[in-house]
């Protein structure tokens, strides 16, 4: 007896196969580039003599290989999940020896944990790839791609690419607020420091544009005082640290304004502001609504809130990472990263300004 449900099943499977093979290939044509700090570093620091690294267990415990990769996450990080949305494989760290030949056409990740907008941010981590050097590597990358597909092809690949840049948090947490009397704190009031780094950030973004970037997601800072590491110094009882919170409140609106003015100057919506502050606040203020048991205590760490020092093989480790918003004292879990990326893709203008990634992808595929 021929079963109608069987033939429907076969049809559905056939459709899934067709869509599954066609759609990702169409999107895989779009390259993806990543710049910034540990929130988006996929392993560059593994190749450097620095203390800012995530290359020992339990980092990567939920990664497909269950091994550390240099990502500051239990599993996938934000760039991985954006690549997933683009239908392509994850971009390799620029320093990876595997980044060669056809792999170069997927894009590259230049991010390096510990860096900031300023060159003096993260000096305590010794050798890391500062942002101006990430840009130099981007130029070098373009020369390597030119050698494969020609200069015109390389330029088109870069012009049509999606770019993500995540920068700025370390300029506060690992520079301005690092010590009670940091050099930058003696030099600048908080509003003046914010204005200063925004003006430097503007130059960085203009350089990125000059190097060919035409669609750039720029994430603001999260609520800097509410990460587990800062709760330790926030005076106990789970209150967010005041200074870093104030910094984020001043810096983020200025960043949005700067991006708006830059787009006006360029006559195009090149720079898209991603409101990381509100995305984080959603699960920090109401962790239960997101299936988290806590947004204060890190899964991996030691001391109050597991917020002291760094996550290492001897740290406390929670059994189920999906129940925690924060993986280590500074970085979200894969589960929280998934919420952030979902919001980047489909969020309203409260989160994505002037538009979300699904709108960008629809617009760019029509041109
Ligand atoms: C950082 O250093 C590079 C190379 O020395 C320099 O070109 C750049 O202007 C510096 N950036 C800032 C903000 O001082
Ligand atoms: C971890 O928590 C998630 C979310 O509640 C749940 O779906 C999953 O089954 C849990 N995993 C384990 C191993 O308990
Ligand atoms: C964001 O994406 C959704 C589709 O997922 C769309 O309906 C909505 O209008 C978009 N919002 C903006 C502001 O682009």
Report on the architecture of this protein.
With 367 residues, the chain is an alpha/beta fold. The chain has a single domain, classed as Rossmann fold (3-Layer(aba) Sandwich), CATH 3.40.50.1110. It is built from eleven helices and eight strands. The strands form two sheets. A six-stranded mixed β-sheet has the order 2-1-3-4-5-8, with helices on one face. Helix 2 links the parallel strand 1 (32-36) and strand 2 (107-109). The termini are far apart. Bound molecules: 2-acetamido-2-deoxy-beta-D-glucopyranose (NAG) (3 copies). One 2-acetamido-2-deoxy-beta-D-glucopyranose binds next to helix 11.
Mean pLDDT: 92
The Cα radius of gyration reads 21 Å
Helical stretch count?
A: 11
Total number of beta strands: 8
Model regions low in confidence, pLDDT < 50 over at least 5 residues: 1-28
How are the strands ordered across the major sheet?
2-1-3-4-5-8
Q: What overall geometry do the principal axes of the alpha carbons give?
A: globular
Q: What is the CATH topology descriptor?
A: Rossmann fold
Distance between the termini: 50 Å
Under the CATH scheme, which architecture would be assigned? 3-Layer(aba) Sandwich
Domain unit count? 1
Specify the helix fraction band. Answer: 40-55%
**Helix and strand string, N-terminal first?**
HEHEHEHHHEHHEHEEHEH
Identify the CATH class.
Alpha Beta
Strand content: 5-15%
Largest sheet: 6 strands, mixed
């Amino acid at each position: 007896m021929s079963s109608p449900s069987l033939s429907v099943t076969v049809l559905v499977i056939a459709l899934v196969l067709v869509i599954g093979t066609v759609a990702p290939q169409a999107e895989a044509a779009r390259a993806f580039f990543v710049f910034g700090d540990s929130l988006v570093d996929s392993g560059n620091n593994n190749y450097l003599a620095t203390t800012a690294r995530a290359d020992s267990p339990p980092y990567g415990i939920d990664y497909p290989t269950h091994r550390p990769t240099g990502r500051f996450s239990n599993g996938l990080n934000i760039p991985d999940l954006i690549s997933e949305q683009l239908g392509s494989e994850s971009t390799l760290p620029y320093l990876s020896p595997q980044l060669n030949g056809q792999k170069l056409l997927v894009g590259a990740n230049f991010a390096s944990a510990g860096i900031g907008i300023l060159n003096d941010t993260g000096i305590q981590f010794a050798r890391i790839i500062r942002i101006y050097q990430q840009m130099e590597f981007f130029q070098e990358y373009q020369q390597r791609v030119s050698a494969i597909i020609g200069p015109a092809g390389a330029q088109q690949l870069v012009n049509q690419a999606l770019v993500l840049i995540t920068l700025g948090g370390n300029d506060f947490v690992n520079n301005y607020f690092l010590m009670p009397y940091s050099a930058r704190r003696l030099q600048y009031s908080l509003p003046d420091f914010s204005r200063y780094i925004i003006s430097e950030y503007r130059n960085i973004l203009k350089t990125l544009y000059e190097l060919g970037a035409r669609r750039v997601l720029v994430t603001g800072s999260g609520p800097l005082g509410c990460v587990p590491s800062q709760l330790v110094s926030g005076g106990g009882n789970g209150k967010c640290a005041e200074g870093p919170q104030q910094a984020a409140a001043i810096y983020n609106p200025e960043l949005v304004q700067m991006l708006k003015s830059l787009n006006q100057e360029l006559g195009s919506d090149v720079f898209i502001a991603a409101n990381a502050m509100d995305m984080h606040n959603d699960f920090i203020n109401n962790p239960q609504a997101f299936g988290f048991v806590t947004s204060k205590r890190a899964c991996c760490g030691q001391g109050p809130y597991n917020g002291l020092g760094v996550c290492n093989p001897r740290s406390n480790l929670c059994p189920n990472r999906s129940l925690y918003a924060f993986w280590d004292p500074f970085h979200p879990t894969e589960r929280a990263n998934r919420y952030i990326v979902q919001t980047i893709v489909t969020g309203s203008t409260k989160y994505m300004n002037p538009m979300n990634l699904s709108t960008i992808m629809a617009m760019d595929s029509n041109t």
